[in-house]
Write a structure and sequence with these properties.
Length: about 400
């Protein structure tokens, strides 16, 4: 009897550790990143091969989408702040993305394809802020899943999307890219509707214009401005890699789409391992320190990539994704959460994406497209060193400042 009671006690304790709300948010995040794995690496190839985009036109649509996010981000955030349920922006953006993908399938005119590609690039990137905020808000260190595990599994879902799309391309051609995006986006929409309701109780609801102004005013905080623009520029250094990396590997190294997908995926696996295994053990490290490490990792990575490494060295360099992206990302997310707390983090995330990441990516995408069309090949990675160097300088300035007071203690 004592043994039975002990087992029952253990089962009760185990059940308490399962966070259902966080698990549903993790499912939505995993489906999003599975779709994102197809979007980042393969959607540009689909536009080039199936819709006749040139490298400059591809860079232009991604650049304009970045500019569009500068406007759409604050507006979406202000609209979301007025909703009674925090799930609302995720459901809306997923629905728009799915409709745009469906419309793009039937479009044949370049102008129409350009417009729908623009919408997809805006809405997909806009979802990141709300999904990341949901994970940060709902995950608890002593429950399953914690943030590191949830975010790491989402990164692995990116790997699945990346590799699966490459396998579909080898099996059925470029049409597999569209099918993967459509099916995973439909799954994301369904998962967003399954997320637990998160009602927001507000005694007084400020008008839309006030919510928009309050969001934009967040940039006046010096620590937030340095974080935003520093990390935004470091992350923007990935644009040449994201847009043209896979195509260059296939063309220059003569490898299959499946192998190219696995090489890309290896970098994301390093990202996931960093978030799942290392991040929980470095809670004590300042966010600014993580950003600085990420900046120097990015400088090393793109400098090596610009030399046109062969296959063995290329695989090793891909491991630096754990620094150039994951370390920078973790520092930014922890820094934003520390500065603004649960209530304002979604708005701060969107301001970061819209006012810093989006314009930096827009500029880097346009530069990447122009550089790619010159035919320099992998040497084009050198063009990404300039924005990364500026971003690293900004986060160094943040690192030199005293640790800011946490939002909860302010």
């Amino acid at each position: 009897m004592l043994h039975v009671r002990s087992m029952a006690t253990l089962n009760v304790r185990a059940s308490r550790k399962l966070n259902i709300r966080a698990s549903r948010a993790m499912l939505a995040a995993c489906l999003f990143y599975a779709a994102f794995g197809g979007l980042i690496q393969w959607f540009p190839i689909w536009l080039i091969e199936e819709r006749g985009f040139t490298g400059e036109q591809l860079g232009l649509v991604i650049s304009l989408a970045g500019i569009g996010r500068i406007v759409a981000g604050p507006l979406t955030s202000a609209w979301a702040d007025g909703r009674s349920d925090r799930r609302a922006p995720i459901k809306l953006l997923a629905a728009i993305s799915l409709l745009a993908l469906g419309a793009l399938w039937f479009s044949s005119a370049f102008g129409v394809s350009f417009a729908f590609a623009f919408v997809i690039e805006v809405t997909f990137w806009a979802m990141i802020a709300f999904l990341e905020a949901a994970l940060l808000r709902l995950c608890r260190p002593d429950q399953f899943p914690n943030y590191g595990l949830a975010r790491g599994l989402a990164s692995l879902a990116f790997v699945v999307g990346n590799v699966a799309t490459g396998m579909l391309v080898d099996w059925m051609g470029n049409v597999g890219i569209w099918w993967w995006l459509a099916l995973t986006t439909a799954g994301l929409l369904a998962a967003s509707m399954m997320m637990a309701a998160e009602p927001v109780n507000r005694v007084v609801q400020p008008p839309f214009a006030q919510r928009l102004a309050d969001g934009l005013a967040m940039v006046k905080r010096p620590e937030f401005a340095l974080l935003m623009f520093g990390c935004g520029l470091i992350q923007a250094g990935h644009q040449f890699y994201y847009i043209f990396g896979t195509k260059l590997w296939i063309d220059e190294l003569g490898i299959s789409a499946t192998l190219a997908g696995w090489i890309f995926a290896f970098g994301v696996i390093m990202e996931a391992l960093f978030l799942m295994l290392i991040a929980p053990r470095i809670e004590h490290v300042r966010p600014a320190t993580l950003m600085v490490i990420g900046g120097f990792g990015a400088l090393l990575r793109w400098g090596l990539m610009a030399t046109g490494p062969g296959l063995p060295l290329l695989v090793l360099v891909q491991a630096l994704h754990a620094l150039s992206f994951a370390c920078t990302f973790l520092g930014a997310m922890r820094g934003i959460q520390h500065l603004w707390g649960d209530d304002r983090t979604p708005t701060a995330q969107m301001m970061f994406m819209a006012l810093a990441t989006a314009p930096a990516q827009a500029l880097s995408s346009w530069i990447a497209g122009r550089v790619f069309d010159t035919g320099v090949g992998s040497a084009g990675y050198a063009a990404m060193l300039a924005p990364v160097a500026v971003g690293t300088l900004l986060v160094l300035l943040l690192w030199r400042r005293p640790e800011p007071v946490a939002a909860a203690a302010a």
